[in-house]
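Table S5 (text form). Sequence records supplied for joint modeling of the two-component complex.
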Amino acid sequence: MNVSDRIRRLVFLLSGALFFVLYCYAAASLPPWGHYRGPYGNVIARVAVIERHATDVVNAINYDYRGFDTLGEEFILFTAVLGVMLLLRREEGPPGPRGGGGKIPDAKVLSTTIQIFTLPAAFLTTLFGFYIGLHGQLSPGGGFQAGVILSTAVLLVYIAQNTEAFQRITSHTVVEVLEAAGAGGYAIVGLLALAGGLPFLTNFLPLGPTGNVFSAGTIALISAIVGVEVTAAFLLVTYTYLQEIMRGSIPNG
Amino acid sequence: MPLHLSLLPYWVAAWLFFWGLYGIVTSRHLVHCVVCLAVLQTSTYMLLLGIGYRRGGTAPVFADIPPGRLTVDPVVQALMLTDVVVEAVVVALLLAIVVKAHEKSGCVDPHDLRTLRG
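The corresponding structure-token record, covering 371 residues in total, follows.
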């Protein structure tokens, strides 16, 4: 450890100690654990089911009461994926210091047994993803979770087979279009409300019977759109990284 | 509840925040640095859920419980949910930057990245 390292650590520990004192001061005035005080949670838990016919209050907040914030969060996701693709795009030019540009052989396909067991696993995962995504307004779940589960199903195929199989089933253009449609679709739902003379992202669809899959109006619709967006986002990130590995610029294994 | 227990989630949050930041400050590898940032961010989950928790409160899902039943705060849970997904892609973005930094400069130690070379 050289001198600058020591100074750096010392400065950090000193400021950390100061932070700790201030944090203790602040934490002491927070409500003790288990004694929630805030009014918002109480109010929203009481009115969400009646006002929006959504039994999962968390999603009613996410896709309706706090819908505008979630739109922003969704665009963070979109921008981050865009950033990954932009940074790791294919470049024509001299290879990097690690001999990038050279193609490395694709991994060998695993045994038939594993492949046979992966197929139903991927199928069940897909089914589960759709279930979670379409029941977001009723039970814990929704678009964000469904997206992660659905992209896992495709990853299962990759694990059992190889990069080529992954790239074959995730047609790049289709996934890109889905990603854009997911990001734009959310904003369009909001704009449709504006077109009808209502405030942005108003829940303008019929609310339907509480507890039914077709209920909660735009909450269910936006949840499904977010599901598409998140699935495409994770697939694009995985796709881009796999391509980078195949180019040989990331040491593989 | 004794004081040290009633503040437990806030201690855990501070603990995760502190060591995540310590890892970033003393990091000698960019991937390690990104992972430390992810650890640091988990402290926000602890803090949010710690604030929203209510003793005797159940999950804010009224599919199978009568309306008006005492629940934990759904607002902080909604905040956390989006936070988790955003964290995942931000880590992906940072790792992409690490790959590029390694490709351009040939090193992954933040100390060796002192100057930007064109």
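Note: Chain B has one domain: 3-112.
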